[in-house]
What we know:
Order of helices and strands: HHEHHEHEHEEEHEHEEEHHEEHEEEH
Structural class: alpha/beta
Bound molecules: pyridoxal-5'-phosphate
Strand content: 15-25%
Distance between the termini: 50 Å
Number of strands: 15
Oligomer: single chain
Amino acid sequence: MRQVIADLPASKIREVANAGMGRQDVLAFWFGESDEVTPEAVREAAVASIRAGDTFYAQNLGLPELRDAIAGYVSARHPPVGMDRIAVTSSGVNALMLAMQALVGPGDEVVAVVPVWPNLTAQPAILGATVTRVPLRPKDGAWMLDLPALTAAVTERTRVLLVNAPNNPTGWTLTRGEQQALLDHCRRTGTWIVADEVYERLWFRAEGACAPSFLDVAAPDDRLVVVHSFSKSFLMTGWRLGWLVTPASLVDALGKLIEFNTSCAPVFVQRAGLAALAEAETFVPGLIARLKTCRDTLLPRLAALPGVQVATPDGGMYAFFRVAGQDDSLAFAKRLVADHGLGLAPGAAFGAEAEGWLRWCFAARDPQRLVLGVDRLAAALRL
Ligand SMILES: Cc1ncc(COP(=O)(O)O)c(C=O)c1O
């Protein structure tokens, strides 16, 4: 086996979850998904597709009607894109891997803004690239970009700048000005930007709006790849469907790569994706409103606990916080599960920069679960 594969770290979130899975008394907030099931119209579309016999291979880049619908969905929120810039993928994580396979090889340099969902930095490492981590910096519980440090790290040698915003786990989001500055800089250095924007719709600052996207500032032929997923905004984590927006010149190559990875996304899943896009405005605004209620239930209660440092995120589905005196996040998360039935993700899972922090996914159907969870945390802190 290649050493880099043998050396891949096991998921620390799984390590905590394994200690509590199957226990009925545990309130689990460790994974990044809602406990709401996919909307019925979406599930019905998949059932109808299977009944109709959609059990065959399909186009590498996705059903033309789905690529067209995605282009329409993206164009309704950002400057217009044609379906010639869309590739359908078998999940967001598959979209990220395809982008990496297309852009980086052994010895290439990738710069990543961290802490971040660990898959983003593991993928270029698997491909033999070196990953330089540029940390966000915590200030009063919120995480901020050090723009001069990031631009200093991205040079002519940097193949890819990896940015995930709204960010998992910190909730940090890029401003429009920061996006423009990064784009200008990467134009000068010839660096690709891979922007993971899977949380763009989960944005609480303005009703109906989405988080700032690189698509809003970039030209169609800029070296920009935007990664998207059906998982988060459409309650479809288990379906494994996503997409990429890229310059049109990259799409044929992506089609070839998809052939060698998955060949295509399952047709009945793509039909479910079509239904999700067609129905999106009937259920996504309600989902966002419910998530906002969850955020506004959890955050003030968390912030009121003595010793807890936390900031209210504008986007995403996570509260990221630290407790004074608890510097070993994995040990603390395991103790919370074992002794108090509270399941959280340890900050260390997202990189050494986040050691001492904990991530709480607040996407709960019943906000009362969050209140109970805070009570358990308070008990653990013996308050
Ligand atoms: C930042 C980020 N990107 C991508 C994904 C991938 O989502 P999926 O593979 O379910 O589409 C996730 C999932 O947690 C994520 O947090």
